[in-house]
Every structure is written in C-alpha cells, then in structure tokens.
Amino acid sequence: MSDAQLLEEPQITYDVEETRHEIKTERCGIITVFVMGSTKGMTDNTPVFLTVHDMGCNHTEFHSFTEHPSMARIKSRSVFIHVEIPGQEHDAPDLPVGHNFPYIGIQNC
C-alpha cells in the first residue's frame, strides 16, 4: 500500500433534497444558493440557518452535518440556505483574470 492510499478517506454522498437558486446582485454578480427545507408555510418562528462554506469546498460540506441523525428534529422544522462562494461551485471553471472577488468588506451584495 502506498502512502497516498493510506491518506485517502472514503467519499460519502448524501441524497439531499435542495433547490438551486441564482441571485443576481449589483456588486457581487451572480451568487448561487441552495435551499434545504420547505419555504412554504414559513413563519417568523421558523429557524433559518445561513451557511457559507470554507474556501476550496462547496455547500455539500454541510450535508454530513444536516443529515446526521442528531439533526433530524431540527432539520424537519428548519430551512437551511447554503451560499456558494463564486468559483467554488462543483466543477466550476477558474474565475477570469481580474475577477472582482467579494470580500467581507463588501456590503449589500
């Protein structure tokens, strides 16, 4: 067995129901978000979780968290909104040279 084989971790995929939305913003261009949970019948008391993944990852990083058995009760009555950082989507092409990447200081995207 080579060292590379020892370092590989099994890839776990989850069958997650989510809807993909592209939101056009004036300052940040198009932002992709994925919504998990039903937005129909939402009230002011519906828990909403907004997530932003780490660099080099995408929104699927949160699937193991939301699909964990201990999250079942919370997930059943909540909505999760996963924001994709531009250029980090699954199979995303490289961002063009000169792309104005959004940073924490940009407000009102």
TrEMBL record:
Q: Which InterPro entries match?
A: AB_hydrolase_fold (IPR029058), NDRG (IPR004142)
Q: What is this protein called?
A: Uncharacterized protein ZK1073.1-like
PANTHER family to which the protein is assigned, alphabetical: N-MYC DOWNSTREAM REGULATED
Domain of life (superkingdom) = Eukaryota
Q: Which Pfam families does the entry link to?
A: Ndr
Q: What's this protein's family per the entry?
A: Belongs to the NDRG family.
Underlying gene: LOC106464348
Name the source organism.
Limulus polyphemus
